[in-house]
Amino acid sequence: MKLASPNPAAEHSRGEVLRPQDRAWLRQQGVGPAGYLGRLGTFGLPLRDVVVLRRGRRFDFARHCRGEQVERRKVLTFLAHDELGAPIDVVAWDTVNDAIACWLGLCGLLGLDFPCPGIAGDPLVVFPDPLSWLKADRRGVVIVRPSLARHHLLEVDAIRTADIAHAGAVESLLLRGLLPRITVPASSVRRVA
């Protein structure tokens, strides 16, 4: 179901606050309070919600899928912002399958509003998954939609990843389709005698 005017902040706020057992699970995974509670004035709380995962790292809220025979998933959701802090999307993290998806398809990097690169020249920390991002108190970003993340990553001076395998995956993303294919109509080609 498509909404007339999607509002990521309003839709995200319809989720439920984390239960004590959710916070306990996050603590058992090594996430400190700053990871799941945030810091005053920087970023919001993750919430609990039920979604339907779709293709292309997208999802719909289950509340909008009434009557559909679909698999519903309990997830943690995060309000995603652009570089200036404006809400642009909602990101869902299926903690059971470690799947990440966005609602509107507009979020390339989760954490873009507060990537915490330090000073100019410091590497942007790119985490392989939301759990490692939360463990680091959200100091960096997580790739949600690679096609949208690529242009942001190409603009930074340096990138730090978790390990060699993750570095290879990020490098592959950056090199993929680096240049567009250029075509010329056959009618515009002059024949050489």
Can you give a write-up of this model?
The protein is an alpha+beta fold and 193 residues long. The chain has one domain (8-177). It contains six helices and nine strands, in the order H-H-H-E-E-E-E-E-E-E-H-E-H-E-H. The chain has helices at residues 8-12, 20-28, 33-37, 130-135, 146-154, 164-175, and strands spanning 47-54, 58-61, 73-81, 87-94, 99-102, 109-110, 124-127, 141-143, 159-160. The strands form two sheets. The chain has a five-stranded antiparallel beta sheet with strand order 2-1-3-4-5. A hairpin with a 5-residue loop joins strand 3 and strand 4. The protein is globular. The protein starts with 7 loop residues before the first helix and ends in an 18-residue tail after the last helix. The model has no long low-confidence stretch (mean pLDDT 88).
The gist of it:
With about 190 residues, the chain is α+β, with helices and mostly antiparallel strands. It is built from 6 helices and 9 strands.
Specify the structural class.
Answer: alpha+beta
Binned strand content:
15-25%
**Which sequence of strands runs across the widest sheet?**
2-1-3-4-5
Count the E strands: 9
Chain-wise SSE layout:
Blueprint: H1 8-12, H2 20-28, H3 33-37, E1 47-54, E2 58-61, E3 73-81, E4 87-94, E5 99-102, E6 109-110, E7 124-127, H4 130-135, E8 141-143, H5 146-154, E9 159-160, H6 164-175
Parallel strand pairs: 7-8, 7-9
Antiparallel strand pairs: 1-2, 1-3, 3-4, 4-5, 6-8
